[in-house]
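User: Working on a comparison across species. This one is Cyclic nucleotide-binding domain-containing protein from Erythrobacter mangrovi. Can you predict its structure so I can line it up against the others?
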Amino acid sequence: MAEKLRVAIIGSGPAGMSAAAHAASLGMSHVLIEKTDHLSDTIFKYQKGKHVMATPSNLVLRSDLDFDAGKREAILDTWDRQIEDGKVNTLYNAEVVKITGSKGDFAIETKKGDVIHAENVVLGIGTQGNPNRLRCPGNDLPHIQYQLDDPAEYNDEHIIIVGTGDAGIENARGLADDPQQRNVVSILNRGSEFPTAKDANVKALLADHEAGKLTIRTETETKLVEPGWITLTTRDGEIRIQCDRIIARIGSAPPRKFVEECGIEFTSPDRNAFPKLSPTFESTTPGIFVIGALAGYPLIKHCMNQGYDVIEFISGNTELKPADEPILVEKFKDLPGRRSTEEWLEFLRGNVRILNGMNPLQMREFMLSSDARAFKRGEVIFERNAPGSSLFGIAQGSVAVEVDPDDPSITVPIEQGSIFGEVGLISGRRRGATIRAAEDTIVVEISRLAALKLQSQVPTAKEAIDRISIERQLLQLFGSGLTPQDVSELVESAEVIDVPAGQTVVEEGAEDKDIYIIRRGSMIVEKNLGGNPVFLSYLPAGSYFGEMAVIDGLSRTATVRAAIKSEVIRFPGTAFNALLDRKPQIRERALSDMAARREINDFVESRKASFGGAVDMYSQTAQFLVDNGLGEATDVLLIDEKLCVGCDNCEKACADSHDGLSRLDREAGRTYAHLHVPTSCRHCEHPHCMADCPPNAIHRGPDGEVFIDETCIGCGNCQRNCPYGVIRMDAKPPKKPSLLSWMLFGTGPGPGEASYSWRKKASEGTEAPKVAIKCDMCSGIEGGPACVRACPTGAAIRVSPERFLSVARLEEVE
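Assistant: Here's the predicted structure for Cyclic nucleotide-binding domain-containing protein from Erythrobacter mangrovi:
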């Protein structure tokens, strides 16, 4: 191609095609370069018959090509026809290997040796040619694939889909759709939510799971791939299941080497980072523009709008506003000050540290699902115990955290650029403190799903959130007037580690010198006596361990392993010792904690000869409790059968407090020795029941109670997900009359009973629609749990696991 063109467009995906079609419509000299023999290779590779969505629905399409939701085949046919009718200059089977030159005179060389000259270059090459690979032993086996063309080709296979983005969900549903194919399909989600998938896809996947068409395995990752088998790590330990085929849809990364050879800089060194771009899509190499998925915009409608816009910019139309402009103008209209949309976006992106790693195009998409809000000095942003899991970034001003509910004047400041609300994001608990604007303040409020998506797609955002949460956990744990500067060395050297259930973190006798904080999950501490592990203690989230070997310089005195799937923060012992040297009060606290732990070790050692049976029995009791959910509980009901007289007052009191429906079954459950764990909610630290609640009806209260609100739709997902069988589906009885009406006039049922008419309908199966019923720890009822208050002998107790699992119980076991 000897003539110099105004623009060369590389890649014929939705963005590149739209750019080429608009260039053709303007009469601009151009070429659309495609390395395959067909248009839009990414859409072409979608599975056959796939329904392609046209989201977001509120975004206007700005393109010379048509696009609406429909089947893959119909959309490709439409584009093929319109590209031909529009006389787009297309060069097929031309893979670009090199771009040299500068703005006004670029030379684009193909693999065949052809050279194309153009004043401007538009890169619309996407990221699909560079998929992320599985990272586990066996990841090179031939039955692992990263693409699914036609689900109908697979029959009677056990198939694992890795990844719950849109591609993974659609692949799983396609393979499980036809019962005649008899495929056994499981889809793995490393978390419990679906932040990168469209809402419609998630709802359809959950419906297929509920119908038994496929299995969703949440909080699950691959550990080992073997011919015909796969080993998975779950929150409850490892499992090995049959597997004939693995389809990994875990995203893709930009083709960094090629892009950087063009002189284009990226936002960070991370493999998944995107190029630095201006609001007009121009890269750090003037004259080279980047659009589409390579720019961080994966949605088809966004990509097509960018293709149209970039040609307008190249043609000189610098006044053009993006198609999402009206939506963003509406979001910013109530903020103080006169700024344009671009100025607001840059103001927020530049001032909030977790947003620094996004380019302006990603920032626009991000703000479509987030909000910017202004608060006057003294105005409450949220209150202690309020529900909420959104994250806030401070773009201007500062906030004050009221740390003492009895004295609002005691506050901790959070400065501009930082974040707050991360505890609700990580744990799902209600707000732990009231936060007010310390001065006139502007914040970005990021929904939970948007925050999870931000962390998965912008590596620097995850790093910043991790750093801030680690710093605050250290300050909260050690206290004593520490400042962020005091712990900066520890924070910089920290490493967050996922620990599967049962895996050892610290081993007795080892010489390593690290210290750990439990970020989520729980740990069991054991000591080897006579070749047998003996339980010492239980460590819940927020605890720290490993300091004894660090301070003494001796070998580890006990083994610490994960009771459930957990997450720990590891710090080097040298940095911790340096902190102790600078802060003697921290050393005093650590030595006090060590003294208590040494007493436990000495106690067990002194009993191992004369009371070996008692030690062994206690260890077995502790393991029994962990096996029955205490390892992830925050509150559990236990019954001492030596004291229990079988009066059932606990059940009756529970029913009387909850519309006649008891939340516990005293006789059900398992027993070890004289200790009984009845069927009642454990109020898990990270509840299984919350994993896929469509209306988000399950919440955690201020005291750790997990409860179900009135928005429950009775889908039964929580009942199926609970491993302890403590949730049941039941119809809620009508409201009971007052106690006075019952006592004086005999109106309605008595205490602990539902009405006769309701019970009759229930027995006939004609009662009202069912909802999920579970223990809520008598939330809102004065005096605490009714089951405990009603027990006449003190047999029923509600305890946190660390209170029960202490070596002091050894004397009782003896």
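For your comparison, note: The chain is about 30% helix and 25% strand.

User: Helpful, thanks.
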